């Protein structure tokens, strides 16, 4: 029918080099998957200094990490047991001894599982254990808020960075994660404010935060502002 034909996106089946060429047409959620992958690569790139500072380049073993996260989630309603698990893990697991990349990896794993409760207990444990927090830890915690669609907590964490002694300098990943947290709730105006702040304070810029801000405008049904962001890019 005519209505059914209107639902078909011609670009979905377009192959630029003939029928025998591989299908390179955009698929559903292509932009989301690509943006998530780019941000993950940026996060790994930016946490390399943590690895170098700890004097080891060994990757965090996934099986050991997953087992630890499983145990933390099992006792998520008992903060003292979470702290005890982390105390024991810090002694027995080399990648947690310096509190560097190991903790950012755990927080990233909790982001994938959308468990902000355990992530916040890890944050409190870091305070209790006098583990210094850097921008990589803050970025990972904001990513948890993003996956849990808790944009208010993401904004609170930005304020914690300003109030830290000394203040923690935000980078592009910080703003990208916070903008994405607002985007998932359709708060395009706050996303725009964060984009303005990023342009003023960050030297390096990529397409990722702009994409997130445009997506926030999409969810907020504001096409005019989305086009303005496109022009800014």
Overview of the structural elements:
The protein is mainly α and 233 residues long. It is 67% helix and 0% strand. It has twelve helices and no strands. It has helices at residues 2-6, 30-54, 62-74, 79-92, 101-112, 116-128, 135-147, 151-163, 172-183, 188-201, 207-219, 223-232. Helix 4 crosses helix 6 (116-128), helix 7 runs antiparallel to helix 8 and helix 8 runs antiparallel to helix 9. The longest helix is centred in the first third of the chain and has 25 residues, at 30-54. The radius of gyration is 20 Å and the shape is elongated. Mean pLDDT is 79; it is low at 2-6 and 46-57.
State the gist of this model.
The protein has 233 residues and is mainly alpha-helical. Helix content is 67%, strand content 0%. The N terminus is likely disordered.
Distance between the termini: 40 Å
* β-strand amount: under 5%
Estimate percent helicity.
Answer: 55-70%
Compute the number of helices. 12
Largest sheet: none
Mean of residue pLDDT values: 79
- Compressed to H and E, one letter per element, the order equals HHHHHHHHHHHH
Give the total of beta strands.
0
Low-pLDDT runs of 5+ residues are 2-6, 46-57
Note the overall shape. Answer: elongated
Secondary structure class reads mainly alpha
Rounded radius of gyration (Å): 20 Å
């Amino acid at each position: 029918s005519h209505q059914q034909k209107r639902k078909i996106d011609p670009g979905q089946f377009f192959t630029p080099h003939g029928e025998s060429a591989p299908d390179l047409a955009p698929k559903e959620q292509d932009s989301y998957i690509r943006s998530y992958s780019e941000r993950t690569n940026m996060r790994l790139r930016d946490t390399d200094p943590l690895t170098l500072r700890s004097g080891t380049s060994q990757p965090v073993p996934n099986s050991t990490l997953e087992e630890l996260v499983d145990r933390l989630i099992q006792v998520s309603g008992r903060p003292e047991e979470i702290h005890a698990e982390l105390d024991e893990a810090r002694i027995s697991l080399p990648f947690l001894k310096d509190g560097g990349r190991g903790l950012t990896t755990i927080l990233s794993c909790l982001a994938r599982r959308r468990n902000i409760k355990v992530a916040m207990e890890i944050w409190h444990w870091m305070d209790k254990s006098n583990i210094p927090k850097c921008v990589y830890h803050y970025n990972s915690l904001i990513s948890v808020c993003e996956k849990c669609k808790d944009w208010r907590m993401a904004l609170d964490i930005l304020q914690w960075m300003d109030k830290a002694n000394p203040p923690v300098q935000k980078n592009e990943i910080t703003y990208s994660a916070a903008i994405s947290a607002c985007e998932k709730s359709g708060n395009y105006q706050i996303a725009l404010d964060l984009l303005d702040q990023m342009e003023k304070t960050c030297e390096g810029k990529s397409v990722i935060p702009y994409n997130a801000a445009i997506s926030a405008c999409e969810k907020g049904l504001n096409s005019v502002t989305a086009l303005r962001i496109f022009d800014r890019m």
